[in-house]
Amino acid sequence: MVAQSRPSLKGSHSAANSMKIRLKVWRQKGPDAEGTLVDYTLNDVSPDMSFLEMLDVLNESLIRSGKDPVHFDSDCREGICGSCGMMINGKAHGPLAGTTTCQLHMRTFQSGDEIVVEPWRAQAFPVVRDLVIDRSAFDRIIVAGGFISVNTGAAPDANAVLVPKQNADMAMDAAACIACGACVAQCKNASAALFVGAKVSHLALLPQGNPERSRRAIRMVQQMDAEGFGSCSNEGECEAVCPKGISISNIARMNREFTKASFGGTH
Amino acid sequence: MVIATPERPAVKPAAPSRFSEASGPMLDARIPGGPLTEKWDLRKFENKLVAPANRRRFKIIVVGTGLAGASAAASLGEQGYDVQAFCIHDSPRRAHSIAAQGGINAAKNYKNDGDSIYRLFYDTIKGGDYRAREGNVYRLAQVSVDILDQCVAQGVPFAREYGGLIDNRSFGGAQVERTFYARGQTGQQLLLGAYQAMMRQVQAGSVTIVPRREMLDLVVVDGHARGIIARNLVTGEIERHTANAVLLCTGGYGTVFYLSTNAVNSNVTGAWRAHKRGAYMANPCYTQIHPTCIPVSGDHQSKLTLMSESLRNNGRIWVPKNKGDRRPPNSIPEAERDYYLERKYPSFGNLVPRDVASRNAKEVCDDGRGAGDSGLSVYLDFRDDITRLGRDVIEARYGNLFEMYNRITGEDPYAQPMRIYPAVHYTMGGLWVDYHLQSSVPGLFVLGEANFSDHGSNRLGASALMQGLADGYFIAPYTVPDYIASTRFSAAPVNHPAFDEAETRVDDQLKHLLGVKGKTTPREFHRRLGHLMWDYVGMARTEAGLQKVLSEIPALREEFWRDVSVPGTNDYMNKSLEYAGRVADYLEFAEVMALDALERAESCGGHFREESQTPEGEALRDDENFAHVAAWEFTGVGTEPVLHREKLDFENVHPSQRSYK
Ligand SMILES: Cc1cc2nc3c(=O)[nH]c(=O)nc-3n(C[C@H](O)[C@H](O)[C@H](O)COP(=O)(O)OP(=O)(O)OC[C@H]3O[C@@H](n4cnc5c(N)ncnc54)[C@H](O)[C@@H]3O)c2cc1C
Ligand code: FES
Fold first, then answer.
1. What is the layout of strands, in order, in the sheet containing B238-242?
2. CB within 8 Å: A153 and B153
3. What residues does each domain of chain A span?
4. Quick one: which of A204, B17, B78, B313 has the fewest CB in 10 Å?
């Protein structure tokens, strides 16, 4: 019979390696409500849990006692959708480089650790609830020009335009951005330069995007400023916390594109 | 349309069920006549058009912004319709499609290795174990080439060769190289391409994005889909949205199993609520279990992570020969290992199709020979190829995957074999649609994984991305206008009684969920349902098991409504409330899924009925009784749905028995 083919109900971790974690979590009921850090203690955390699964466990116990769970966004839970993200002990996505919050595992921490969990903080990212924030400013920047204008059905054969492998690879490096907002959260100026630079670079590096590159650079940069993001002062904090390893050389490219476009006019 | 005998089917394995004896006309899929190669051209020509100046007057709602939804919204926006795109997330770019890794198929024949539109068509029909429509699949293969062109023009950074041409590879055991990819992030890049095309239409004023909304009901006026009820997930407000057509692009229902490779917000709610308003649910029992996923580590687990199928090109799959052998893998001598796929399928070995690989893993684990503490995994061992090719070569090919595996499990796959286990990955079933992608409710179109249409009972690797984009870029933009042009719309303002009724229904359910104030969390119910489904409607199904689960689901549902705990209120962001509604729908949907599996007393593709197998233990189809689509009509929660059938005719490809020996 089939009944044995599923995972056993018990976790694979034994009581011996279960961890005790003390949390201080930012709780804020709504955009206009006051927020505060609230203490929680979890006594039976498995090192195999992801950070979000640890919060799931906390939430299960809160719900069971009729209390509001800690709100946070997540979807793919494998580091690609960009939904998750929180400041973990002051660091966007926590202590591991190149890792989103959903990919961070509790084995990174020690039993007895205290962990402070807060939302991204930036003027352009208002808090919606607890750790959930509003990142629609990113969408508006894309609307301003983060695309190549081609109607469905109007495309030439895929191999009609050659793209040097090196450019394609660099474009892909930039396109890997997941728009999580960690760059903004970590930057002391709350600048979105890495996010915008990545998209400007991705599209500027490809021949398909060429005709609109000046217009794109100008419009996206203007929208970024209009959204209330700070300006970039080359701290490099963004690159250090970026879970996808987006390089700050993309910011330099954006600046070049913008300067060139400003002098050359838009076409 | 015929209403079939509404009693519970008395299933005798491999014998026609009572449902199949129903007489009367079959469902009409509106597949055009004429030769296979001309059907779509013919239909495109027959379709009615809407003049450019008039398009703006017609409103189209798109629900879900994955590949299917985003590409449809962009294309219909470009044509000039007034499009509203709804998404659950804070941004449409986060839809589940973003997670697809491997690639997308297109019959370009760039490698000059014998590929063609006909071959892609043939492979898809055969791979789907002869349970898909020839007309649809041929069209899919035809537009596959246009999709690739479109994506490249949008700036999707596909992998390139040194000469600047696009690179491609063979995938999932295909004999030609027709899969195009952007590193391990093909879904992400394709989705960003569609998202950006859609955002361009936002700038142009033809598309409006409505984020952080969940569709909670379909509004039907005079038999036509005329709008939706959505909940604003930030404020809790219930909203009414009216339209001339509704496109449901809400993805698959893999999370009915609780654990799957799907994103955690993926759900059946949109599709299920449309089903309750009259859209038929087709072949819900067809699910795909992917063989190479990271095994479950404990009860806390919230989702499963896929490890690319390409790993099977260099890894050898084995388990200990002896039951209960718990020694670390490296101390198990060669003579005591069972490379069971190589042993049983000498010609395909570790590269047998997904369903075969998955079933065999389950078999050895059920036999007590599984690896790891739980005994629920098998080894995928790279030792031999690391020795043969060198660590560098393996690292170049799979470095990022090995790193991901290490991050999740804490184990080093260069030093010891990976442990893998099958996981639910994709659902071939979904809402029934005709050739126009229109459901049984006129004006309701269903695109992407949410419909049932093109993969039969088993989907080929790299074909879901292709289908989602085919539906959104190249099919709906021809068929939705035809519907609009040929329909005389009655007035359906948001104060129409149909909107009142739908809103009341939604409101009542939310209040009900908040009012139970029980002791058990929605997640706990979801997990329990998932366990039931995995045990009895998972990789192998039996009549007895299905009968059992059909009696347990209603009991669990009853307990849910008695004991679920949903804290908070309905007037601000409340993720427990959202989640509870989705679990409630799964508790209803699961029943029709099990019933469909019971009714289909044959094995085909991903649907394996233990009673129907060849002497070698392979899936045995029953073409005489089951060469049809099963489309279920809702009659009430807990009451027997009505079965409609659509006959599948094979005029070009002759159904044969698959063999991988
Ligand atoms: C890990 C993984 C890897 C994969 N790799 C490949 C691959 O390499 N090649 C391939 O071809 N296929 C692959 N697939 C399959 C493929 O990704 C999906 O089938 C496809 O992306 C589905 O696209 P879609 O547009 O139909 O739906 P989705 O992308 O699922 O989009 C639907 C969206 O609608 C939202 N939604 C649901 N209900 C509602 C509602 N009521 N209101 C509002 N919004 C709602 C959902 O949250 C979701 O974001 C993979 C799948 C997974 C899980
Ligand atoms: S949940 Fe998708 S990146 Fe973390």
1. B213-221, B224-232, B238-242
2. no
3. 15-118, 135-262
4. B313
Instruction: Give chain B's length.
Output: 661
Residues with CB under 6 A from ligand 2: A 74-77, 79-84, 100-102
**DSSP secondary structure letters along B321-386:** SSTT--S-GGGS-GGGEE-HHHHH-TTTGGG--HHHHHHHHHHHHHTT---STTS--EEEE-HHHH
Given a contact cutoff of 8 angstroms between Cβ atoms, the answer to whether B441 and B277 are in contact is yes
Query: Considering just the CA atoms, what is the radius of gyration of chain B in Å?
Result: 24
Instruction: Say what the pLDDT of residue B2 is.
Output: 36
CA of B189 relative to ligand 1 center, distance in Å: 14
> pLDDT tens across A213-246, in order?
999 999 999 999 999 999 999 999 999 999 999 9
Which residue's C-alpha comes closest to atom 3 of ligand 2? A79
Q: What's the farthest any 2 CA atoms get from each other in chain B?
A: 75
Residue of A77, A132, A244 best suited for mutating to test ligand 2, as the one with most atoms within 8 Å of CB: A77
For residue B545, give the nearest of A1, A13, A129 by CB distance.
A1
Q: Smallest Cα–Cα separation from B289: which of B249, B320, B259?
A: B259
- Give yes or no for residue B88 CB within 6 A of ligand 1: yes
Rounded to two decimals, what is the model's pTM? 0.95
Task: Determine the pLDDT at residue B96.
Answer: 98
Task: Evaluate whether the domain defined by A135-262 bears CATH number 1.10.1060.10.
Answer: yes
Listed in sequence order, the DSSP H helices in B517-649 are 522-536, 543-563, 575-599, 623-626
- Candidates B139, B178, B316, B354; catalytic one: B354
Q: How far, in Å, CA of A29 to CA of A127, rounded? A: 9
Q: Does A1 touch chain B (CB under 8 A)?
A: yes
CA distance B618 to B291: 16
Select the CATH number that applies to the domain covering A15-118 from these four: 3.10.310.30, 3.40.50.10420, 3.10.20.30, 3.30.300.30.
3.10.20.30
| C-alpha distance from A181 to closest chain B C-alpha (Å) | 12
pLDDT of res. B19: 53
In chain B, the domains with their CATH numbers are: 290-422 (3.90.700.10), 497-647 (1.20.58.100)
Contact between chains at B567 and A76 (C-beta distance less than 8 A): no
**Residues in B touching A48 (Cβ below 8 Å):** 297-298, 300, 409-410
Euclidean distance between CA atoms B6 and B4, whole angstroms: 6
Q: Are B419 and B379 in contact (CB under 8 A)?
A: yes
The Å distance, Cα A193 to ligand 2 centre, comes to 21
Distance, CA of B441 to chain centre:
21
How far is B644 from B442, CA to CA, in rounded Å?
17
What pLDDT score does B15 carry? Answer: 42
Q: Which of B98, B182, B366 sits opposite A76 (nearest CB)?
A: B98
In the reported structure, the alpha carbon of residue A102 is separated from the centroid of ligand 2 by a whole-number distance in angstroms of: 6
Regions in chain B scoring below 50 on pLDDT: 1-16, 20-23
What are A214's two structure tokens? 């000046």
SS3 sequence, A196-253? HHHHHHHHHCCHHHHHHHHHHHHHHHHHHHHCCCECCCCCCHHHHHCCCCCCCHHHHH
Handedness of CA B65, B69, B75, B79 (dihedral sign): negative
Per the annotation, the verdict on B8 as an active-site residue is: no
Asked if residue B446 lies in contact with residue B271, where contact means CB atoms within 8 angstroms, the answer is yes
Contact B91 A139 (CB under 8 A): yes
Binned at pLDDT 50, 70 and 90, residue A15 comes out as: low
- Distance, first Cα to last Cα, chain B: 43
A91-92/A87-88 β-pairing: antiparallel
Return residues 210-249 of A near B (CB < 8 Å).
none
Please tell me the distance between residue B469's alpha carbon and the centre of ligand 1 in angstroms.
11
Q: Which residues contact A65 (CB under 8 A, 6 or more apart)?
A: none
Query: Looking at residue B308, what is its pLDDT?
Result: 86
